[in-house]
Amino acid sequence: MSVAFTIRAVLLMTLMPDADHREVLTTLLGDLTAVPWQRPHTIPSPTVLSTWRTAVGEAPLQQLQRQLLAAVEAEHRTAGPPAVEVGGIDSGGLRLGSIDGTVTRMPDTPANRAAFGTAGQAETGYPQIRHLLVSDAFTRATLAVVAGPAGGDKAEAEQTLLDRALAEHPHVFTPDRLWVMDRNFPGVERIKRMLDIGTHVLVRVKSDIRLRRIGGFATDGSWLARLCGGGLTLTVRVIEYLVILDGQATPELFCLVTDLLDHHTHPAHLLAQAYRWRWDGSETALREAKSAIHNAGPGTGAILRSTSPTLVRQEHAAWTVATELVRAATRSATAIAAPFRKGPRTGQPVQARHLSFTTARRTLIGTVRAGTATASLPEPARAAAHHTALGVIAEARVTTDRHRHRNRKIKSRQSFPHTSRDVTTRTAPAHVHVCGTAA
To answer: Where in the chain is the domain with CATH 3.90.350?
Structure first.
C-alpha cells in the first residue's frame, strides 16, 4: 500500500458500486496480481484499506477535487465545449449554467449521524450529506460543488450552501453566465450577491412571493417588478408562461424572475425555453452521478460506504472527481464521434450529452483493469488504447429530448411496482405559451 495507491482505490471505489474492496483493489492492480513476485503477496484486507484511508484523510482528495474543477472551469471558459446560449452572441449571448442541491445517504453510525444528521425534521432513516452542484447546463460538467450536513429544511439548507458557493467559488459566477435555479433559491439578499459579483440569474419563484409590477407589459409579455426582502429592493423582469402538455386538462404556470431587463435583447420566449435546461444541467447530472454509487453501501439506492465523517468527506470528494473524469472522457470522445446518421439530428455533430455516462464509466473501469489508464505503457500503445476507449464511448449514443413526462413526485426509477400510485411514463410534446402574448 501507498498514499497514491490508496487515493486511486478510493476514486475507483466510487465508480464500482457493486464491487467489494477485493474487487476494487484487484481491478486497480490488474495484471500485477499474476506476476510471480519474489515475496508472497495478497490483496490488502478491508482493515488495511480502511487504515490507510484514515491515515490519508480528506485533505488530499479535496485538493484533487479543487484542481480538477479548476481545470473543468477553465476548459469551459476558454473556447471549450459548445454552450446553450440565450440571446445570441451578437445580442448579449449568455452561457447557461444550472444550480441545484441533493442529499446522499451514508451508513448509519453514531459519528455520521452526529456530524451530518438527516434531511427534514425526522431523526429517522440514514444520515445524509447535502451538496450543491454548480454545473454547465449543456455538458453537465461540474464547475463547483460545496457540501455539508443534511440540515433540516431543504430550502434553507440549500440556500446556505449557495452562500458558501458564492464565497468560495466567485470566479465561476462570470458575466457571461446565466444561472437557472428552481424555487428553493429566491431571496433578495442572495440574488443581489450574485448580481454584485457580476453574473446573471433566471429564477423560478414560488406562488407566495409578492411581485409589485412597475408599468405595463412589454411586447413579449414580460413586465418589470419590485422584489423586496431583507431590507433590500431589486428591480427584476418577470416572465410568466404556461406549459401545456398534449392531453393534459390543466396547464402548469411558471413564473421566472431575471435581472435581464431588456426584452429586445433577451425576449421572454427564449428565457422560457432556457429554464428547461435546469433539468439537463442539474437533475440529469445528479442522477448520472448517483448511478455510480447506486447500492454501494448497506442499502438500496445511492449511498456512500464510509462509516466516519472524515472518510465520508474523503469519499464525497473522490466521487466528485471520479464522475467528472468520466464526463471529461465523454467530452473528449465527441472529437472522434461520427455525426448522427439518422433521425432528426442527421448530419449534426455529437455532443457530450448524447453519449452514455454508464458506458463511459464501464469503459474507463475496463482501461484501469487492463492497465491502459496509466502512463506505464509505451506512448504508441497508450495512445492506441486511449483512442480505442474513446471510440467505444463515442458510439454509445443515448436518446435526448424525448418529451417524456412522469408524475412529479417520482424522481428515480422504482425497484418494484407500486399499486397505489400511477407511475406511467407518457411521451407527448409540451407547448410553451408566454402569458400576455397572442396565442
So the answer is: 59-285
